[in-house]
Design brief:
six-stranded antiparallel sheet
Length: about 240
């Protein structure tokens, strides 16, 4: 049985995990929780903020005049296709999953049409998550699409399903293991983590854990499993 990682410590000791998704269930068992953050090393990547977009969020240039290349950095990380599902990803595959679910495909089937990002030599993995809250139950699925040790000819696809989320437990997945050149893709299963009971508490904890030079934006949402109501928090470095 794997031991839960202290996510606060893990992030504080990692200068560049890139983009990260955390999903889990609060210790009192009443809420589903998700967190998504973005980091940046270039001026273009750092020139972003999260803004609300319907029931989800999107990235937006903080200073439009300084936006150099919108590809791979401007997208909707979180979308809500129906009363049951919430999608969170690190790229425009959010739209792929959204359209797939609405046309009858599964999460995994929807992502079959996608691969890692075309940004060699990093070939940034596409990480995705799907939360399902229905009938007083909560489960989630996570995915990573990545190159085979930097080989752009091979896309490795891993899906992790957690159909009945345990109380107080969650999982974390990031694009990179740490800083480097090229950046090393995340390796292994999603890390088991603990989930705090408060949306604001988790948002503050995660934000303070991220490298102050590289962090850009953070989104946290807590969904009440009994009725689907939610509380969300956005923190942007650029304000």
């Amino acid at each position: 049985m794997s031991t839960a990682v202290d996510l606060k410590q893990y992030l504080s000791e990692n200068s560049y995990p890139g983009r990260g998704i955390a999903i889990g269930r609060t210790a009192d068992g009443t809420k589903a929780a998700l967190a998504y953050f973005i980091m940046g090393r270039s001026a273009n990547s750092r020139n972003r903020v999260f803004v609300e977009d319907g029931q989800g969020i999107r990235t937006q240039a903080f200073d439009p005049a300084k936006l150099e290349d919108p590809s791979l950095i401007i997208y909707a990380p979180v979308r809500v296709p129906d009363e049951t599902h919430t999608i969170v990803t690190n790229g425009d595959q959010t739209d792929t999953v959204y359209d797939g679910l609405r046309s009858g495909l599964s999460f995994e089937e929807s992502l079959r049409s996608r691969c890692f990002e075309p940004d060699g030599p990093n070939y940034t993995p596409r990480i995705s998550g799907l939360l399902t809250v229905a009938g007083g139950t909560f489960g989630y699925t996570m995915s990573i699409l990545k190159s085979n040790d930097g080989d752009p000819a091979q896309c490795l696809r891993f899906t992790y399903d957690y159909p009945d989320a345990p109380v107080g437990e969650g999982h974390f997945l990031s694009t990179y293991l740490h800083d480097g050149s090229p950046l090393p893709s995340f390796s292994g299963e999603p890390l088991k983590i603990r989930v705090p009971g408060s949306c604001g508490e988790w948002a503050q904890e995660l934000w303070e854990s991220l490298n102050p030079d590289n962090k850009v934006s953070l989104f946290v949402r807590y969904i009440t499993i009994a009725d689907g109501s939610c509380e969300s928090k956005i923190i942007n470095k650029n304000v």
